[in-house]
Design the sequence.
């Protein structure tokens, strides 16, 4: 057999052709540049070999389409959208790729004048996916790959005065694709900026800056390596701080290079909390580049990593480049919004998962203060499923390809103080090529740490990194000497797919407790939904929605931000869990607060403590304390000066503490809330207050309906089915279906591995009640209806013996006391249940909601750090969280009362002790069935869930299950609540009051 001929894009040993040496990204505003963004002619082909003859020559674009650059062609109507997590879309036969290889030929004509031509012309692509050839005026000038890194070509010898033709041929598949199998949409094209740079004969080609610190962490150690284009040259430099000159000097090159060292006493230090930057201008003749150095030192000491001598904890997020309309083309503005949001939500670190981002992303991280793990564009996850995961990672024939990806990243980004670790890639097993990459990175830059999760033994990395480690495993890592005792980071955890994750606090507690654990990065920042508009409905598509197969469906909808950047409840939760100030109550004290300062560099003198004494969620006393001073990693106690107050019946008293910014920062104004916590003062005096008695209740029975009524209320019971059939007043039915037991919730993504058991084995969605006994008796000012029932699910031996006791008071209230005794006559039963509760329905006209409980946003037992007890108002629709993929949502915990109103009247439900609540305009079945929000079928009545207990969310779509304490086990239970119909005004004022009149 003859050896198969390798096409250019099937040769991993061919790293590039004609491409300039990678160099640091810096700003050179003294140079003239032409942006080549905008319209290009475009020819889409099924294979590169189908390129028309002479396509690379000027004028060949007749009849071609046009396309805007930057963009991905799949979102411009070419090729098709496809999402996979792990799978390559073709046979694994490296370096060969499919003959059917979608190809885009781009062409642009650019007019250059004589003045321009005095200098050199550099063509710079910031990102092209996945490999591409370039021709200028018909001449081949180069070839490059690595989709998420820039490529520059010196095209001076090909350009001329007048029109110049630039042709770029982009290949969807290349040998590089084997190294770009990240979990994301497959997208192609010129998707980042393109520019032409007018470069004088003498310029600064490269300028690498290391800005470190001496051992005392006081003096800045500044080194700079300048490379000029010409072998000999000279220039000057100035380093300033807020426009004040700090140091300056001149230099002269030898062989085109100059090395400068300087020291800056009492230097302002960069950290994510204090992003102090200097301004550096370096000139060479007319040429002037600007760089923003930040002085800081990253090192490992005593098995921990330190920044500026201080142990730090990473509270991070994984960030992909993503835009709901543009795919991986992301504007500066959008990135800036991301960075601002991260800062506002207490995030202090970001991992560029899983490739280098746009150059300006790092400028923003420098400026606003985020620690960055910069990750090489390298993942070959699909090999795992071939049973030969190491195939190319351990094949020396791929060495250059692996090393190139790390080296070019380091060369581009090394001036950025924000980067504290270089990551060699993601999910690519381990082998000699990673050993080489680590070696090459260290040669280039010894001032940062090396990360790669796939180095399971931490053989060449500086940190031991794992992902989705369960708490048990994490504890083992924390407590055992292993993996060279290197400090540990969780490069991914807290899979934010759909509703969830819950249980984040348990991780944060571990990170804070154990020395070895230095934090983690939540997976991930965005839901990668693709916005579409059909029939005037806008919604987001995920894998499979474009007919793509195979796919991992909505596994890409796993961010703490919705595609339109609305923070999901998960982000609010994460913010509180990682908040740098932990608020505790001093045990046995009522109003003494302990603040733990988890900032690594800031003392608490930059925050204000705002406190309020709340009665049923409303402030009755409040104040501010502005004299906090705890040093980093220390605590302080604060006495809250609460004055004596009257304790009223049926009221809760809370101490609500907020820690807010004292001053403006560049990402949030003074007053911005950093952390908040509410403490129950536990001084409640409960008393059931029956309303004044009304007219005598009459009891009639007809056609299986028992009616208990007077002028205040009509309660109808079904004597056969044993239910409260309706609650009416003045001829209108408010409660249209009384309580029946329910254990099921519309499957959340984090329950994906339980769903089959729950729904196809234990049939928890198929529960039903059997009436055992129905009786009633008249009491003073009340009628008591007692119904005994059995509740169970289809073909199950386990269930509940239930007793419903309804007391209808002549004052108009209906008290429901439900008790359930668990029964098991066989052996099989689910490990736990989504919930134990009841389901009811109210008339569809009751769309206004109010409640006193945890809120305002949805919350669950293992995810309510950001919720507080209060009285909130909304609408039934307004209480839903519209997850891209429909699932259980909108639950509120500890609800003491809720109200459903139309314009005049209210169905009021008051619970004893607080219950879980959910109000929605759809049934659980329709939620379960829908694939998009607009497919959720609206029900005619409002569906009400009241839960004795609701299971936590967990993070089990990829990670830890619900913790044991958040799993609802089969158990005896009792729940009590009261229903009545009152005037709406009463509710709007202060609903609790009516029980006291
Ligand atoms: C990790 C991987 C991520 C993503 C995540 C699941 O294994 O590194 O890229 O696939 O799982 O969403
Ligand atoms: Mg992967």
Sequence:
């Amino acid at each position: 057999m003859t050896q198969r001929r390798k096409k250019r894009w099937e040769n991993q040993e061919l790293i590039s052709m004609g491409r300039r040496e990678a160099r640091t990204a810096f700003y050179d505003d003294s140079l003239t540049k032409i942006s080549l963004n905008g319209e290009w002619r475009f020819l889409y082909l099924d294979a590169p070999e189908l390129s028309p003859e002479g396509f690379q020559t000027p004028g060949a674009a007749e009849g071609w389409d046009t396309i805007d650059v930057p963009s991905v062609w799949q979102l411009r109507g070419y090729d098709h959208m496809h999402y996979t997590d792990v799978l390559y879309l073709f046979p694994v036969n490296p370096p060969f790729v499919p003959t059917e290889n979608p190809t885009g030929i781009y062409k642009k004509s650019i007019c250059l004048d004589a003045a321009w031509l005095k200098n050199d012309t550099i063509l710079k692509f910031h990102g092209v996916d996945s490999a591409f050839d370039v021709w200028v005026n018909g001449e081949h000038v180069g070839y490059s790959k690595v989709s998420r890194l820039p490529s520059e070509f010196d095209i001076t010898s090909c350009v001329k005065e007048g029109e110049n033709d630039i042709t770029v041929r982009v290949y969807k598949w290349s040998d590089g694709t084997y190294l770009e199998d990240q979990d994301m949409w497959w997208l192609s094209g010129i998707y980042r900026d393109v520019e032409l740079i007018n470069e004088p004969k003498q310029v600064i080609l490269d300028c690498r800056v290391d800005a470190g610190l001496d051992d005392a962490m006081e003096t800045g150690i500044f080194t700079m390596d300048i490379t000029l284009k010409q072998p000999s040259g000279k220039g000057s430099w100035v380093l300033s701080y807020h426009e004040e000159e700090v140091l300056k000097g001149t230099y002269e090159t030898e062989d085109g290079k100059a090395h400068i060292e300087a020291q800056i006493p009492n230097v302002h230090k960069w950290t994510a909390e204090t992003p102090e930057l200097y301004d550096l201008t370096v000139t060479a003749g007319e040429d002037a580049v600007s760089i923003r150095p930040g002085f800081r030192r990253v090192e490992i000491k005593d098995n921990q990593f330190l920044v500026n001598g201080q142990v730090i904890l990473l509270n991070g997020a994984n960030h992909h480049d993503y835009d709901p309309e543009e795919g991986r083309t992301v504007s500066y503005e959008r990135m800036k919004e991301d960075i601002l949001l991260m800062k506002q939500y207490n995030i202090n670190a970001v991992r560029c998962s899983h490739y280098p981002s746009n150059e300006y992303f790092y400028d923003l991280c420098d400026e606003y203060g985020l620690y960055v793990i910069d990750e090489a564009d390298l993942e070959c996850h699909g090999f795992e499923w071939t049973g030969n995961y190491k195939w190319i990672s351990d094949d020396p024939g791929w060495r250059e390809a692996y090393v190139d990806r790390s080296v070019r990243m380091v060369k581009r980004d090394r001036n950025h103080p924000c980067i504290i670790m270089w990551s060699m890639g993601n999910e690519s097993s381990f082998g000699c090529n990673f050993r080489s990459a680590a070696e090459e990175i260290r040669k280039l830059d010894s001032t940062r740490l090396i990360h790669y999760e796939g180095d399971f033994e931490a053989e060449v990395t500086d940190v031991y990194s794992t992902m989705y480690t369960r708490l048990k495993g994490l504890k083992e890592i924390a407590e055992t000497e292993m993996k060279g005792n290197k400090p540990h980071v969780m490069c991914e955890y807290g899979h934010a797919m759909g509703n969830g994750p819950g249980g984040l606090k348990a991780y944060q507690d571990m990170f804070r407790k154990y020395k070895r654990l230095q934090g983690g990065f939540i997976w991930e920042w965005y839901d990668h939904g693709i916005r579409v508009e059909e029939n005037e409905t806008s919604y987001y598509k995920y894998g499979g929605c474009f007919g793509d197969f195979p796919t991992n469906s909505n596994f890409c909808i796993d961010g703490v931000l919705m595609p339109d950047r609305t923070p999901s409840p998960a982000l609010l939760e994460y913010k509180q869990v990682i908040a740098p100030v932990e608020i505790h109550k001093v045990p046995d004290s009522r109003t003494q607060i302990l603040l733990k300062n988890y900032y690594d560099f800031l003392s608490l003198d930059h925050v204000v403590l705002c406190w309020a004494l709340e009665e049923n969620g409303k402030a009755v006393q409040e104040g501010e304390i502005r004299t906090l001073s705890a040093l980093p990693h220390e605590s302080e106690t604060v006495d809250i000066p609460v004055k004596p107050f009257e304790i009223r019946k049926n009221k809760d008293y809370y101490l609500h503490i907020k820690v807010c910014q004292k001053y403006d920062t560049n990402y949030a104004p003074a007053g911005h809330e950093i952390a908040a916590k509410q403490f129950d003062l536990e001084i409640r005096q409960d008393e059931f207050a029956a309303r004044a008695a009304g007219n005598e209740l009459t009891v009639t029975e007809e056609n299986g309906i028992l009616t208990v009524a007077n002028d205040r209320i009509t309660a109808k019971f079904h004597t056969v089915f044993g239910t409260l059939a309706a609650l009416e007043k003045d001829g209108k039915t408010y409660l249209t279906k009384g309580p029946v037991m329910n254990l099921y919730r519309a499957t959340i993504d984090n329950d994906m591995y339980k769903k089959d058991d729950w729904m196809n084995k234990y049939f928890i969605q198929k529960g039903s009640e059997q009436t055992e006994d129905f009786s009633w008796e008249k009491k003073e000012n009340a009628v008591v209806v007692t119904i005994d029932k059995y509740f169970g699910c289809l073909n199950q031996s386990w269930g509940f013996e239930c007793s419903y006791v309804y007391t209808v008071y002549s004052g108009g209230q209906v008290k429901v006391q439900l008790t359930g005794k668990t029964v098991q006559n066989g052996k099989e039963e689910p490990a736990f249940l989504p919930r134990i509760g009841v389901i009811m329905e109210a008339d569809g006209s009751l769309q206004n909601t109010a409640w006193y409980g945890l809120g305002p946003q949805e919350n669950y037992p293992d995810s309510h750090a950001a919720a507080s007890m209060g009285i909130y108002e909304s609408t039934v629709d307004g209480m839903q969280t519209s997850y891209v993929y429909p699932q259980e949502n909108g639950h509120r915990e500890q609800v003491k009362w809720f109200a459903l109103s139309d314009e005049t009247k209210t169905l009021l439900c008051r619970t004893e002790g607080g219950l879980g609540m959910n109000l929605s305009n759809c049934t659980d079945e329709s939620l379960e069935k829908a694939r998009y929000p607009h497919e959720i079928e609206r029900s005619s009545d409002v569906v009400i869930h009241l839960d004795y207990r609701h299971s936590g969310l967990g993070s089990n779509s990829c990670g830890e299950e619900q913790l044991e304490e958040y799993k609802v086990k089969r158990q005896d239970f009792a729940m009590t609540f009261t229903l009545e119909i009152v005037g709406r005004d009463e509710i709007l004022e202060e609903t609790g009051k009516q029980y006291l009149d």
Confidence is low (pLDDT under 50) at residues 993-997.
